[in-house]
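Same chain as my last thread, 234 residues:
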Amino acid sequence: MNRNVVITGGTRGIGAGVAEVMSRSGWHVISAGVSEKEIAEFSGSKDIDLQLLDVTDDASVERLFSRFEKLDALVNCAGILLREKEYELDAFQKVIDVNLTGTMRCSLAAYPLLLASGGAIVNTASMLSFFGGPLVPAYSASKGGVAQLTKALAAKWAPDGIRVNAVAPGWIETEMTEGLRRDTSRNDTIVGRTPLNRWGQVEEVGALVNWLLSAEAGFVTGAVYPVDGGYSAV
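reply #2:
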């Protein structure tokens, strides 16, 4: 029987990479994107089921999760950052609503299905869950919140047989980081500060997510795993 996983933010960036890894591993992947444009531009596997989802909208979330009779896993990857604009309150609230509240909103919607299946959740935290980013106060706050939310849900839902963990990516090659990689000075600083001396790949995040959702990780819950080449260790 197919194992079903919903990946929010699964049509681009890290989410799309996670979707590819999980699809190759035999999961039936439902990748949710926020717009028809994102879905139309998705260049991944034809086996991935593409759906619209706005994680800030209750009706949109309910519409997506109500269509499933069975769900085995949820991966919360939907996220945004607005850099210096995050010092404006409207922008700050928008980032929190997508990254943190959206994670909670989707987790609550998935809960009854995961309760029935004994499923699991993987959230997307960040290296900025552990230290601050002065240009992205809302992103930093939201990702710190995701890490603590992960632990809270893990403790709350453990008696229900639902495991909740998080990955905390560092500098990963995505379209979001393309400008940094093209800037020789910034690129050299980032790579030089990273003990493994390179950028991470989305597939490397996907491999960890896939493991966390597997039976091999059956005794793992409430954990936040860095995937940052050692960046947060030094």
